[in-house]
């Protein structure tokens, strides 16, 4: 940082942005952020662009850039306005204040606050694997894996299309245009009436767990 600052040369970032996440908006797989400890500056910008944010009760969030003479340029500013509203976003960006996880949940930026001693509620096969993981799978990381397992157990086509439709709203596309785009993608990609849609309906009627096939999206 000191070298690039003295020479005036900015360090290049991947197209996907800071940490490979801050500008990533059209990926097919959902991003779940598991936040523990300090989540400031670039870390906060990554969390803001995640699809879901799970935070440890000890997590702290903030954009301290203004306090050191720089600006949050990895996508946080416009996204923060859309997520928490203009006044709260400006409070965060202009003061450099730090916020606890509970407050970020109240603002709608954090989905769930997890206690540090959380040991998991998943009793399935993946739950046993997580249980055997020991220390590395405690607390918020363990909970994030459980949420990911729930998502992975759903239709891969439905998950990807739902994520795409949500991203249209994130980009400011109107409801009618966004809905029309989702419908068109489903038709073009063969999702509407496809194998997973048929399997899901059959499984629902037969009261059994669906057996999904790999998505062709």
Structural class: mainly alpha
Based on CA atoms alone, the radius of gyration comes out at 20 Å
Largest β sheet strand count, sense and barrel closure: 3 strands, parallel
**How are strands sequenced across the largest beta sheet?**
1-3-6
Into which percentage range does the β-strand content fall? 5-15%
Question: Helix fraction?
Answer: 40-55%
Query: Span between N and C termini?
Result: 40 Å
pLDDT < 50 stretches: 127-135
What is the chain-wise order of helices and strands? HEEHEEHHEHEHHHHH
Helix count from the secondary structure assignment: 10
- Beta strands, count: 6
What best-fitting shape do the alpha-carbon axes yield?
A: globular
Could you tell me the mean pLDDT?
A: 84
Oligomer designation: single chain
Structure report:
This protein is mainly alpha-helical and 217 residues long. Helices cover 47% and strands 10% of the residues. The chain has 10 helices and 6 strands, in the order αββαββααβαβααααα. The strands form 2 sheets. It has a 3-stranded parallel sheet, sandwiched between helices. A 3-stranded mixed sheet has the order 2-4-5. Helix 2 (42-48) crosses helix 3 (76-84). The longest helix is centred in the C-terminal third of the chain and has 15 residues, at 156-170. The chain starts with a helix and ends in an 11-residue tail after the last helix.
